[in-house]
Write a structure and sequence with these properties.
7-stranded mixed β-sheet, 4 helices, disordered C terminus, alpha+beta
Length: 177
């Protein structure tokens, strides 16, 4: 872990512009069209659904202030439920445990905002991300009690649900089948 990396909330126009660049790099790295998620509207309206008090955008920077990664959190319609979105680490930020740090930071944010479930999606081809989510799901020390992976037949994404430990929560259900 690189202690010189700072993770902080996106709070000004510079942060927003750098987050947009990271979001675009994220989208390009996927190799699929995100039109079905209204991605262009999301970019134009940032922070949009990720704005406090019910959401959050986090950006990671190196000691020189260069952006290395980001992650977002948005409220979902179900009570006590949120979604982690756009976890991305740039190529020059990889290999430093930054993906894990960003995920843990957004889990901690979800807990602070009193969410009891956090959902996420990931492409089956994103093997490093899926391995990270499985690891985090088995470790109570990152405030995650469970992770359940399931494939939705109608989507290219693999969906997961994580119940945040220590919070009142309805039964964790798998999306799809």
């Amino acid at each position: 872990m690189d202690a010189r990396i700072i993770i902080e909330p996106v709070r000004n126009n510079t942060d927003l512009e750098e987050t947009k660049i990271l979001f675009l790099a994220y989208a390009e790295s996927l190799g699929i069209d995100l039109t079905f998620q209204n991605f262009q509207t999301e970019l134009k309206t940032l922070p949009g659904v990720y704005a406090p008090p019910n959401g959050e955008l986090l950006i990671a920077r190196d000691a020189d202030g260069s952006p290395l990664g980001c992650v977002a959190l948005r409220q979902m319609q179900q009570d006590g439920c949120c979604e982690m979105k756009r976890l991305y680490v740039s190529p020059n930020g990889r290999g430093r445990g930054l993906g894990r740090r960003l995920a843990v930071a957004i889990f901690d944010t979800a807990t602070r905002l009193d969410y009891c479930e956090i959902k996420l999606d990931s492409l089956p081809s994103m093997t490093a991300a899926l391995a990270l989510y499985e690891q985090l799901g088995r470790r109570d020390r990152v405030s995650v009690k469970a992770i359940i992976l399931s494939y939705l037949k109608s989507s290219p994404f693999q969906y997961s649900i994580m119940a945040l430990a220590g919070l009142p929560c309805q039964e964790v259900k798998v999306l799809g089948n």
